[in-house]
Structure formats: structure tokens, C-alpha cells
């Protein structure tokens, strides 16, 4: 069985950890530690760290999924991305992805007249203030276009607020607002708390398989 991840595969309840400026100069650090499931089978982890230093947010994302059938590896996914943000605008991005043996690297930087993405031989010029699929920052839900840091594509996005519902987080029922995010090769569902805290994610893969993020 083969399947393809679409797009990206990717705080009180999120176990926020606040660090003093003495530790690495960070004014505050937020951590998200997600277990990742394909349908009902745990296949890996996706970790996010957001540290703010001098008004600049440093975001690190590390994902590793491995799916086996009868102990035989059927799919492997590894993704690492580092981003810097200021005033809700992406400043730099560097990402590396291994999707079942297919490797890709993306880099980008804000310049004086825009944001330049390097994903091959020809740089791509984008508007000066852009955002990625920054799940940790619910402000990204207000954007009509987003940069996919895995592919380097700047895609049109449609966001729909579905409504409030009860969601189980670490065995506890909490109130959450559900959002539907769709774009080219992206089909996401996200949940946020009433305080705009990111709680969970689901993504539909090719073949109808569901990738689910649960806080560990």
C-alpha cells in the first residue's frame, strides 16, 4: 500500500514552558509535542518549538513518521524546518524533507522588496510579508495565500470556521473551535481552544487515509 502526504504533515493544555532570558537568551519558549497517527496506528512524532528573542520568533519543526505493514517499511517521512518571524511576517525559512526517499530542500529570506524563495535554479519572488502554515499562530487562518515550507509553493488557501465542539485532549474533554483549511494538495482540520491555543490536527492523505496529531 502506498500513499502520499498532502502538503504538510504538516497553551495551558499544550504544556507551555516559559524560560528566563538567562537560558539561551530566550524570553519565552512554547513547546508542542504531538504523537502522530495514520488512521488508528501510531507512526511517529512531530515536535514544534517557538522561542522569542528580542521580538523575533524562532520556530523549529521536527517530524518523523514511519509506517510498516507486517513489519515491512511501507512509508517513511522526515521533515525539519527552521523559521524566523517578526511582526507576524516570515523573515527566513530553511527546510529539508525526505518523503519516502524523495529529498527536497527549501530556503527563503525577506529582502528589501519582497520575500525570495529558493527551491531550485530559479528564485521565486513573493510579497514582502507572507506567512507559512503556522499552526502555532492562529493568525495564519486569516490569510488567503500561504507558503508551503515543504514544497516552496505559495498557494491559495480557503479557511472555514466549522464551529465549536468537544475535543478530547490527553484524556480530558475540552471545548474547541474547529477550522477547515483547504489548498492545492492540502486538506487540513485544526482545533483551537477559546484562548486560541492549538490543540489538534487532522490531514487527509491520498487514498483517504487520515493523519492525526494528538498532544502527548
Tell me what the structure shows.
This protein has 216 residues and is mainly beta. The protein has one domain (28-215): outer membrane lipoprotein receptor (LolB), chain A (Clam), CATH 2.50.20. It contains no helices and 14 strands. The chain has strands at residues 28-38, 41-53, 56-69, 72-86, 89-99, 102-111, 114-118, 124-126, 145-147, 154-169, 172-183, 186-192, 198-204, 210-215. Strands 8-7-6-5-4-3-2-1-14-13-12-11-10-9 form a 14-stranded antiparallel beta sheet, with no helix packed on it. The model is unreliable at 1-23 (pLDDT under 50).
Shape by Cα distribution: globular
Helix % is under 10%
Q: Number of helical segments?
A: 0
Number of separate structural domains = 1
For the secondary structure, the number of strands is 14
What's the CATH class label?
Mainly Beta
The sequence of SSEs as H and E is: EEEEEEEEEEEEEE
CATH topology label: outer membrane lipoprotein receptor (LolB), chain A
Q: In terms of per-residue confidence, which ranges show pLDDT below 50 for 5 or more consecutive residues?
A: 1-23
Radius of gyration: 17 Å
DSSP strand content? over 45%
Strand order in the sheet with the most strands:
8-7-6-5-4-3-2-1-14-13-12-11-10-9
Distance between the termini: 28 Å
Structural class: mainly beta
Taking the sheet with the most strands, its summary is: 14 strands, antiparallel
What is the CATH architecture descriptor? Clam
Average pLDDT metric: 86
Amino acid at each position: 500500500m502506498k500513499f502520499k502526504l498532502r502538503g504538510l504533515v504538516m497553551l495551558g493544555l499544550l504544556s507551555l514552558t516559559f524560560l528566563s532570558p538567562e537560558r539561551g537568551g530566550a524570553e519565552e519558549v512554547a513547546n508542542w509535542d504531538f504523537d502522530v497517527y495514520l488512521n488508528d496506528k501510531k507512526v511517529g512524532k512531530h515536535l514544534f518549538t517557538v522561542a522569542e528573542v528580542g521580538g523575533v520568533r524562532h520556530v523549529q519543526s521536527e517530524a518523523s513518521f514511519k509506517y510498516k505493514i507486517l513489519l515491512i517499511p511501507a512509508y517513511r517521512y522526515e521533515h525539519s524546518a527552521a523559521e524566523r518571524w517578526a511582526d507576524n511576517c516570515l523573515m527566513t525559512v530553511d527546510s529539508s524533507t525526505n518523503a519516502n526517499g524523495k529529498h527536497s530542500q527549501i530556503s527563503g529570506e525577506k529582502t528589501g522588496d519582497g520575500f525570495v524563495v529558493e527551491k531550485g535554479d530559479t528564485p521565486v519572488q513573493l510579497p514582502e510579508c507572507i506567512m507559512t502554515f503556522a499552526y502555532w499562530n492562529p493568525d495564519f487562518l486569516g490569510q488567503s495565500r500561504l507558503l508551503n515550507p515543504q514544497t516552496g509553493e505559495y498557494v491559495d488557501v480557503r479557511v472555514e470556521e466549522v464551529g465549536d465542539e468537544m475535543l478530547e485532549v490527553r484524556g480530558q474533554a475540552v471545548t474547541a473551535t474547529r477550522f477547515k483549511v483547504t489548498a492545492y494538495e492540502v486538506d487540513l482540520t485544526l482545533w483551537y481552544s477559546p484562548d486560541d491555543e492549538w490543540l489538534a490536527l487532522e490531514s487527509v492523505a491520498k487514498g483517504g487515509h487520515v493523519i492525526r496529531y494528538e498532544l502527548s
